[in-house]
Amino acid sequence: MQATARAQPNIALVKYWGKRDTVRNLPAVGSISITLHDLYTQMQVEFDASLDADRLTVNGEQDDGMLPRISHCLDLVAGPQRERASVTSTCNFPVAAGLASSASAFAATACAAAAAAGIETSTSELANLAGRASGSAARSLYGGFAELKNAGDAVEVETIEDPAAWPLRVVIAITKAGPKAVSSGEAMERSRKTSPFYARWVEEQPADLDEARAAIASRDFERLAAIAEHNCLKMHSVMWASRPPIVYWNSATLDCMSAVRELRARGHAVFFTIDAGPQVKAVCLPQAEAAVIEALRGTAGVETIMTSGLGDGAAVVSVT
Ligand code: 2P0
User: Fold this and answer.
1) From CA 255, how far away is CA 240, in angstroms rounded?
2) Which CA distances in Å does 254 have to 5, 275, 276?
3) Binding-site residues, ligand 1, Cβ < 6 A
4) Distance, CA 17 to ligand 1 centroid (Å)?
5) Given phi > 0 = left and psi -120 to 50 = alpha, else beta, which region is 284?
6) What CATH superfamily is the domain 169-308?
7) What pLDDT shows up at residue 162?
8) What is the average pLDDT across 126-142?
9) Among 102, 128, 186, residue to substitute to test ligand 1 (most atoms within 8 Å of Cβ)
10) Ranges of CATH 3.30.230.10 domains, the chain
11) Predicted pLDDT at 177
12) Which of 56, 78, 152, 212 could bond to 82 as cystine, CB 3.0-4.6 Å?
């Protein structure tokens, strides 16, 4: 009745932004991401008939804010009649700060809950269950380069390249480690309802996905850099034009973006991407990594640097 699973966050190169069904949490657009290796969330789920309510601790501290979403995820996997659970989460990077902590948290929760409840599920089913809790979590069930497609009432995710097929590196500049002011779910809905650019964003996404898929298939770094930065800036433009506006960046975010562009102008294979937070993820070829670390570490306002290669999808670590 107890299982532990581990999942790595993923970074979208072509972003998910907007929902077409808020009840089932279905995304309005497809997305392509890379699953990381060195950052992780480990979730232990123990169903316990003696408990009268679920409990959650994150890195040793009780976390009642996140508990309702975790309980909902457990209901989705094990059914609402399940025993209450004690859930213990360990995460080796800042949570709720635009580092995709919900992706790894819900991917690991879905995996651990199914194992703890003794339910046989396919990776595809787990991706759909995790995705109902957090859209990006569906991608963390898969390793390497993963593409999420909308397929009617469900999502379909597949690994389009294994992590070793194109071993990119990711250098993450943390510019502010605290939790974000507006959750991504709320921000997506505000964008959908108020941004004049939202419809165009949705309309252009299939072409961006085609472009990124082709760049990945041909290992064309410059082509991937161009489409990933364009897609990222387009998503943030949708947010900036929302009412009230959603601006996740700070001045260090902008300085990191400039540093990455300067490096690329000097011949280093690197591009940036930024999610629902002020952190900058610089994706690069291995030979550019040292220069990227040095440049971002020397950028004013950068608090910490984290690095990662590409890794596998979520997996059960132990069942007892
Ligand atoms: C992504 N983000 O593709 C995009 C880019 C943030 C910016 O998916 O509401 O926590 O739980 O489905 O998955 C973050 O949003 O949103 C996200 P919900 P989620 O990675």
Assistant:
1) 18
2) 36, 13, 14
3) 12, 15-17, 25, 31, 100, 102-103, 134-136, 184-185, 188, 275-276
4) 7
5) beta
6) GHMP kinase, C-terminal domain (3.30.70.890)
7) 98
8) 97
9) 102
10) 2-164
11) 83
12) 78
